What does this fold into?
Amino acid sequence: MASLSFGDREYWDSRFAKDPSGFDWLLPAEALDNAIAEAVAASSSQAPRILHIGCGTSSLSSRLCSLVGSSDRVCNVDFSSVAIKASRAREAAEMPGSRMQWVVANLLSLDDILTLGKSSELGGGLYDIVVDKSTADAISCGEDVPVPLPYPLRVPTMLEAEQDTSDQSTGLVHPLSLLAVHVASLVPSGGRWLVLSYSSSRFHFLKREDHASSESLVGTGAFVDPLQLWEVAQEEPFDAPQAGEPVVGRPVVKHVLYTLIRTSIPVSLRARC
Ligand SMILES: C[S@@+](CC[C@H](N)C(=O)[O-])C[C@H]1O[C@@H](n2cnc3c(N)ncnc32)[C@H](O)[C@@H]1O
It folds into this structure.
């Protein structure tokens, strides 16, 4: 059998089944406290809703409740039913009265995204803040994803190009481009997507200067260019924990906290044939 990657559900299911107790990737959950508190304060909503994507068994879920002031405004999503089951059980055991939502969903599946966003409200925005601790990292390890073209999620400038829906095909898109479009469909203009990543080039495809090198499918009229949907507002370096004893001269490894801001361009759902 081919070896599994961080982009595969089977990999995560088996990992969480071996250790269902809480585990935090890259950094302890509290490392994001300031950034999340800032995003809550900056939100145009008095009662911002949080979508925690790829929650795994991180203690970030419970921290989000205190940071946002209410457990019922926190929705945790993961495609590993094992992680969701373990995390939900931990909430029940350790947080009496807490009412977070726990959803098993594949963030790369359009049907799952439409269910998450209750499709009729698509474009209206359901989650003011999306929190992602190394989930974009895991997703970026996956293979390019086959998608129907023209893609059912579109922006207004693509409308004309899509009049002829008889010309249907499929194409391959990078999993992070697909994630960026899916997440954008759930977030209103001005909403934020906070991403803690080990990579300093995780969102190169959202930067105009690097854009020429991105994949050819995006922005063709068949698939939305995520550059239209997100602005990289901030990249804050974080010292990664050092393994073992400190060694003089060893370079300090940095993680990066990205703050992406949703642009005002709406994403809507093309009627499916
Ligand atoms: C690196 S772990 C991070 C877990 C957690 N955020 C933390 O900080 O400990 C990546 C998480 O993303 C989830 N994941 C990966 N691909 C996914 C996808 N396509 N849809 C939903 N969840 C996914 C995995 O199940 C795993 O829980």
About this structure: The radius of gyration is 19 Å. Residues 119-123 have pLDDT under 50 and may be disordered. The chain has one domain: 9-269.
